[in-house]
Every structure is written in C-alpha cells, then in structure tokens.
Here is the input.
Amino acid sequence: MKTLYISQQGSYVSLRQEFLQVKLKDRLIAEVQLPLLEQVLIFGQAQITTQAIRACLWRNIPIVYLSRMGFCYGRTLSLEQGYRHLFRYQQELSFNDRLWVARSIVQAKLKNSRVLLQRQNRRSSSPRLTKVIQSLDYFSDQAMQSTRIEQLMGYEGTGASLYFSVFDELLLNSEFVFLGRSRRPPGNPVNALLSFGYQLLWNHILALIELQGLDPYQACLHQGSDRHAALASDLIEEFRAPIIDSLVLYLINRSMIKIDADFDYRNSGCFLNTSGRSKFLKAFIQRMEESFLFNNEEPRPRWDTLLQQVKRYKTFVYSPTEGYQPYLIR
Here is the structure.
C-alpha cells in the first residue's frame, strides 16, 4: 500500500477513473491507482477536487491536510472508518512494557548520533570525536540497563549534551559557529536551523500518530500533558540525527544557507526568515521524497520511514510481547 504525498505548491489532485492524478498546471507529475492507496497527505497550497475526495471516502482512504511546515490542520475520514481510538490499549501497557520501549528509543537516539560522528571521524580523525563516540557507546549500553524512566532520561540528556559538545567539528563552513545547543529561543543560526527542523519533523510525526488512531498524549519515555503530545516527542528521538541534523549539516557545509541573508535576530534569539524557511523546506521535502532501501525491502521515500515506525509502535500497542524495533542507521 502507498502513501501519496502532495508537497509541490500549486499542484492539485484530481480523479481519472480509478486513478488519483497530481498535476502542476497542465503537467502530470504523479499518478496512483486508488486500490493501492493507503492515505493522502497534502502540504500547504495544494488542492484536491471534490470528486477525488469522494473517491477516497468511498474507499476509506483518509486525507490529511498539513501546513508546509508539517503542522496538521485536520483530516478527512469516511463515516464508515470513523476514529480508531487505541488509548485504552495504550493505558493498559504495563510499566515494564513502557520501560522496554523507552530504553529502545533512547538507545536508538544515542546510536544514530554516534553514527553521524563516526562518519566525520572517518573523514578527519579527531580526539574529541573519538572520546565522545566512546562515551555514546557507554551511555547506549547503560540505557538498556535502566530500571527507572528518570534514570533513562538522565542518560539521554547526558548523551545529547556530549553529542552537541562536538557538533562544531561537523561544520565545514567557517561562517557558522556552534558553541552548544540553545532552544528557547535559539541563540544562533545553527540552533535556529536545528529548532526549525525538529519542530517540522515533530509536527509531521504527530499527524501520522493521529492518522493511525493512536493517542498522542500516552507515551513511554516523555511525560504527556494537555499541552504536550508526548508520543510525538518519543518517536522523533530516533530520527533527529539521521534526518534533521544531517540536513542542517548539508545546508551549511554546501553554503546553501547564507548567514547574512536567511536569518532574523529578534527577542534575544535567532530565527529563520522567509528566505531561510523557504530554502529549508525545499531541501527537507526533496530529501524526504528521495527513495532508499528500508529494511532491505523495496525502495520507499523517507516520508514512508516515519509512517512505518508509527505503525511499528501501533503493533506494539496491540501486542506488547512483540516489542518495538526502533529506527537505526549504519
């Protein structure tokens, strides 16, 4: 089953017999057969005809409407499908089940961060990088032995702090300086890029969580509240380094983002301006639309990797004994 991502601005989706066609002006850019379609995600200023909506509703294919930044405005579901609430199953998860998943998520985050550092260390060996890589190995092992969530969060926080203490060694553009992670507000252009990317990815994962009928406020690692969809914060962890951090390095090291043209400084912080957001979004969508082999299966866009992880978590909720396999890079 396929997911149709409509991310090109100004494009529109129409119905032709058993096919959904995506066009930009009069040019056909994609076509998907309805029986093979699982869901439709529409980003930003893209349109879908009433006939196409009706055809999706008839086949129980949900349509999700998102901003260009990935914020979910809402979704269209058929009456027959309704809303699939899994919160009862999520609430019934035992502490040990939650702890096991929380351990797996933290370990995956630390391992993926380590891989990013290892790649740079192979290109240009550094004592600082080598030491942090070894430390991430240690805290990754310790995470799997944690018996309390608080202890696990401590290992995650320490590992993240170590990782960002050498992040500057991955930057090849001397105009960009990074002395450490700062969030609210971002203190410099590198932090502005990281924060924007994380928020973009978090919103998209939240949309997928809701689309699968999961309760986004019931999580394993982070504490949920009325204002915090903690499950999105859980599932983003394993994707931070391989998707956002690597993209930020790509944009900076290839001088695709300009320090004097793509940022605004206000309210004691640094933020991407209109030009910077446009460049980041274009690069983000291009990267997420690239196809690659996932678990030695057929090539899929990176968007689909996020969906498959949410589905894995959903499978865990139904069958905790099967566990949860996090996303790991090599």
The chain has two domains: 2-76, 87-322. The radius of gyration is 21 Å.
